[in-house]
């Protein structure tokens, strides 16, 4: 498939096309050759992360004031999609580094926090994580049990987090933690948890990055459970207003869904390209597999999924960049693209036959990697709930 195939049907500027082409060349020349070994050894290639930083990918949607590229979320999505075609682990490293690491500081941080943290994060010299999920709090983030109390000008944090991306690399600077910092009254006379976000630097006494998970997929992505045992950080490490942590995170999550949708679209595209190439070369009963109508119909459906997913995330990104409401559209994009990635991975594996079950082939890794796209940053069910509420449905 040509380098222009993935741009068909969308209206991109020349600058955006150049960005997509640059990332595609980098993905094929640098990222793809190391993907199998990184997956096999469960190793995040920090040299490739550094090169992504030098290309400006981590700084795409941020202002030049802090070392960013002055771009937008559509540009970020193009970069994530291009990387995800060949390696979802590095794509999620970029996505989480921007959406969950740097973006909360950029959106809600004080000027001092921005000056301290953003330059290194936007340059790809450092990574940061976002500690939301807990053993009892995933989709129900309001069930957060990690606590933080003020004591002598310091926050004292206790609790645990799980499934936290970019939390334990050699270049991870901090993890922003959601924590219960008190209670606030409800309209019905009861109380609800006051949830705030607090920056906890890696290496702080009592902050333990537990051993990495043994995952089904995204094996080269850095993911750890975290433990906080009387962790003390300065009071000025509060990120955003006290009590606004959950609300702020939801807005970050809406943006992140666009980025995840771009990642899923790239994965679906990678599966399609690999399957078309394999079917064209694979001979069965004296003819190329691609001449068989059943294979052609499978590949056509895969193409339709890629096209639909791409239009969905582009639309959500353009709404976001225009300052218009986009939460429903982001949920639709996440839903459609996540299912497209999983469906295309399954179909591509079937096209490959026995070879599709071998990890050395990209479709096998996409098959393992893509399932999380229907779970992470909001499950399929959560996306359906968001869409249903936009229709005025309650209950």
UniProtKB/TrEMBL annotation:
Residues 13-125 form the Acyl-CoA dehydrogenase/oxidase N-terminal domain. The keyword Flavoprotein applies. Its cofactor is FAD. Residues 130-231 form the Acyl-CoA oxidase/dehydrogenase middle domain. Pfam families: Acyl-CoA_dh_1 (PF00441), Acyl-CoA_dh_M (PF02770), Acyl-CoA_dh_N (PF02771). PANTHER family: ACYL-COA DEHYDROGENASE (PTHR43884), ISOVALERYL-COA DEHYDROGENASE, MITOCHONDRIAL-RELATED (PTHR43884:SF12). This is Acyl-CoA dehydrogenase family protein. It comes from Microbacterium commune.
């Amino acid at each position: 498939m040509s380098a222009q195939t993935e741009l068909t049907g969308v209206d991109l500027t020349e600058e955006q096309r150049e960005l997509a082409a640059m990332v595609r060349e980098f993905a094929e020349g640098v990222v793809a050759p190391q993907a199998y070994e990184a997956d096999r050894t469960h190793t995040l290639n920090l040299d490739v992360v550094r090169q992504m930083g030098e290309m400006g990918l981590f700084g795409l949607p941020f202002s030049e004031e802090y070392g960013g590229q002055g771009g937008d979320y559509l540009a970020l999505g193009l970069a994530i999609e291009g990387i995800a075609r060949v390696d979802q682990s590095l794509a999620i490293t970029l996505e989480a580094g921007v959406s969950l690491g740097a973006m909360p500081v950029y959106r809600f941080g004080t000027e001092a926090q921005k000056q301290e943290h953003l330059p290194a994060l936007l340059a790809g010299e450092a990574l940061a994580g976002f500690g939301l999920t807990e053993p009892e709090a995933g989709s129900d983030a309001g069930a957060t049990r990690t606590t933080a109390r003020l004591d002598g000008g310091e926050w004292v944090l206790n609790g645990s987090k799980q499934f936290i991306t970019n939390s334990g690399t050699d270049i991870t600077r901090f993890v922003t933690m959601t924590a219960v910092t008190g209670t606030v009254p409800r309209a019905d006379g009861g109380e609800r948890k006051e949830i705030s976000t607090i920056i906890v630097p890696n290496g702080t006494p009592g902050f333990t990055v537990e051993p990495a998970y043994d995952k089904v997929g995204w094996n080269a992505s850095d993911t750890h459970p975290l433990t906080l045992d009387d962790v003390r950080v300065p009071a000025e490490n509060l990120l955003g207003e006290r009590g606004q942590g959950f609300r702020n995170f939801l807005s970050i999550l809406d943006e992140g869904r666009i980025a995840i949708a771009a990642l899923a679209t790239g994965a679906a595209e990678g599966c399609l390209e690999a399957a078309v190439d394999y079917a064209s070369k694979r001979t069965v009963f004296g003819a190329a597999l691609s001449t068989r109508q059943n294979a052609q119909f499978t590949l056509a459906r895969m193409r339709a999924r890629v096209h639909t997913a791409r239009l969905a995330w582009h639309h959500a990104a353009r709404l976001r960049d225009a300052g218009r409401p986009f939460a429903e559209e982001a949920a639709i994009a996440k839903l459609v693209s996540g299912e497209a990635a999983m469906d295309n991975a399954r179909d591509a594996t079937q096209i490959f036959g026995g070879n599709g079950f071998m990890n050395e082939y990209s479709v096998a890794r996409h098959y393992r990697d893509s399932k999380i796209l229907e779970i992470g940053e909001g499950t399929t069910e959560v996306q359906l709930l968001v869409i249903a509420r936009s229709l005025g449905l309650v209950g």
